[in-house]
Amino acid sequence: MGKPVIIALDFASKDEVLTFLNRFSNEQLFVKVGMELFYQEGPAIIHDIKERGHQIFLDLKLHDIPNTVKSAMKGLAKLQCDLVNVHAAGGQEMMMAALEGLDQGTSAGQRRPLCIAVTQLTSTSEEQMKKEQLIQVPLKESVLHYAKLTKQSGLNGVVCSSHEAAMIREVLGNDFLTVTPGIRLKEDAAGDQKRVATPDFAKKAGVSYMVVGRSITKSENPHESYQKFIQAWEGVQL
Ligand SMILES: O=c1ccn([C@@H]2O[C@H](COP(=O)(O)O)[C@@H](O)[C@H]2O)c(=O)[nH]1
Questions:
Q1: Where is the Orotidine 5'-phosphate decarboxylase domain (predicted)?
Q2: Which residues are annotated as a binding site for substrate?
């Protein structure tokens, strides 16, 4: 499975990214490129990171009409990232269109990126979901509903919080990926995240990959902080 931690490279420039990556010398990482970095640096940043041998989750969370998502994914497939994503709220037709686009954009002999869908953002609380999205079921039920829809659409997994991962694994199987942001060490500030969990909670819940941003990138010693997350994960014997 490789590294259980995906580092969110939420930086505004290539210089900041390279300074950050240089702290890890030759260590191969699994990193996430999100909107902040991609909108500033464009596709070239993907080539720069890939050149250094890191795995990439391109986290652009596509959510648009099926035809637009299909065409966008066709283009993104050419960047040869390992993982891309959409919002499950875009619906089954949109998610299936995303896969079609990825298939069309992947050349023979290349591996199609895995595609996952965001269920409910980890910055959303149950109260907020009910009030602002007018979804009146418990948040866990909404997440499971989106996860089922995602699987039916043929995608490889979901973005959810660690609190929903065990339920999703139980219902949808061990091969269906759960990628969980909102990961914090006990002493870390939650910031804008509402559904947070520690690495050991995530491991016990059967999470596939933990996404960690600020706890590592804003730390005085990012390499040491990264190691703390890895060690906390590895310290849990299942
Ligand atoms: O539901 C979601 C989906 C994506 N994210 C992204 O993960 C990181 C988390 O960063 P932290 O600094 O560790 O909070 C960030 O890039 C988000 O865009 C998410 O948090 N929740």
A1: 4-229
A2: 10, 32, 59-68, 122, 184, 193, 213-214
